[in-house]
Predict the structure.
Amino acid sequence: MQPDLQFLPRRKSVPEPAAAGDVLLVGGQAVPVTFTRSQRARRYILRLKTDGTARVTVPWRGSLAEGRRFAERQTAWLERQLLRLAARPVLPTDWRVGGTVHYRGEQVLLEAHASGRVVRFADQSVRVTDAAGDVRPAIEKHLRKRAACELPPRVLELAALHAVAIRRVSVRNQRSRWGSCSRTGTISLNWRLIQTPDSVRDYIILHELMHVRQMNHSARFWREVAAVCPAFEEAELWIKRHSALLR
């Protein structure tokens, strides 16, 4: 099983009630575990989340008991991933003038205007309460507005180009996925796509559009993706390398 610590699109799932104190013993450490039942999952899937908890995805007609047994058989893999997680550097959560943020795939410098009430980066200017403090809330709000303006038209453009019918587009503050597609044809995108290169943004959009045709991650689905986005592997590599920096 390949490690799954990436910030990637996830399948629609339904949380299963978990027993109080449901944990896995991994290398002498108690790891909380939750179970979700997915209509699309064809096999049991184990993931380690960035908060150190485990999640088991159970096929819709699968057994929770078998899901637990599956997780228990993967404790060696979980232990390796916990070690990797512990070794990851702790990134600062605040954004300050003099630091950098990602914008359209580039790391850009945050600079203060002489007034102390405006922060500039790339071609953007954002009014802040105090440029000497944490400017992240104001800049994130600005970026979310930019994303809400830019992403839906791009989805509609690519949907028309590839003859995919969609019902609605929403831009959200998703914490565990870049995008999603509902069975009713609603495409939901993470506002942080405004921080990625255009090629990555388009890949995520096309990925979700292809889910309108194939509501799964089968070989046929990936052939659809490759047909409309031949460089999708490069986009996934960028995501793998940069996802942690965009949280």
